[in-house]
Amino acid sequence: MISQPLVLGIETSCDETAVGIVRGRTLLANVISSSVEEHARFGGVVPEIASRAHLEAMPYVIKQALRDAKVSLSDIDAVGVTAGPGLIGALLVGTGAAHGIALALDKPLYGVNHLSAHLAVDALDQSRDLSPAIGLLVSGGHSSIIEVTDLALAVKVLGSTIDDAAGEAFDKIARVLELDFPGGPAIDRLALSGDPAAIDFPRGLQSSDFNFSFSGLKSAVARYLQQTPEAIRADVAASFQEAVVDVLLTKALRACAETGIAALLIAGGVAANSRLRAEAARRCQMAGVELRIPPMELCTDNGVMVAALTSLALSAGVAPSAIGFPTLSTVPLNQPTWA
Ligand code: KG4
Ligand code: ZN
What we know:
Blueprint: E1 6-11, E2 16-23, E3 26-34, H1 36-40, H2 47-69, E4 78-84, H3 88-105, E5 109-113, H4 114-120, E6 133-138, E7 143-150, E8 154-160, H5 166-176, H6 183-191, H7 215-227, H8 233-259, E9 263-267, H9 274-287, E10 290-292, H10 304-315
Parallel strand pairs: 1-4, 4-5, 6-9, 9-10
Antiparallel strand pairs: 1-2, 2-3, 6-7, 7-8
Helix pairs in contact: 2-3, 4-10, 5-6, 5-7, 5-8, 6-8, 8-9
5'-O-[(R)-(carboxyoxy)(hydroxy)phosphoryl]adenosine binds at residues 14, 139-141, 167, 170-171, 182-185, 188, 268-270, 272-273, 300-301.
């Protein structure tokens, strides 16, 4: 087994055409081409437009990643690609490219779970050994609390959202507030000038389990805006964001306490939220929990996370995926790579 494999990772599950290159646990390149502006006027990602944009961008993104990493394609030891969950047409462009490269080089190919890949970015922080953590995965499609022992093999899901994902709630509330798409970063920016304590929005599902629900909060914000013509939008954004952050961190830290795992790993697009990052740092310090949170640019979708998970799978001796593995729009969190 190669001890420090050079891995190329491809991500095309949504609107980012992204290629990352890692050597073992070291990041060498992170190139992203986004079609987000082409979707903005539709208020959401249009699958057909995303797929076409992936096809156009792919060759350039791959070449740029190789240039940045100062390696040539023939140096690559393995190829990883997001096989799901995501938009099928978009995923197929990535898996098609990955199959082409792996077959031409005669190298192993791994179809990986986008959700596990978000968490795998943490492996690139070499300041400590790989060790168990409670994962808080918060993206556009998922919100879950996970016991992470070995990402390449399996994870244990402790709880998930029963309705909207955290990112989805951000995107929907942004629409109600007439903010630009994508909504998460727009709310984050607007909230900076608002008062998080201005409106006491409901926290939703304060049960003793690890599930989330954001639909009540969403309705409460919409109702508040309808009934309060003089509403200050920045206060609404900040108070909504505060409710989401509070619920996420309360349950995640309770999972740390109940499992005795004193490390919290936050990943996925919503992990880029400035309030979540600041509040997580504060609460983790108070609770004596080590906070692991990737740099902002590695929280939202990228190819590095796919390369990182592929590298972990190689090190763990996981068998490559079969050529022609399927792309899937939904995938259970506990399947890190495809057989
Ligand atoms: O992980 P990701 O890039 O794609 C998925 O796998 O879904 O997550 C995208 C989600 C979107 O809902 C977006 O609004 C949200 O992450 N997001 C944020 C921020 N940046 C991205 N939410 C809150 N604050 C942010 N700064
Ligand atoms: Zn994602």
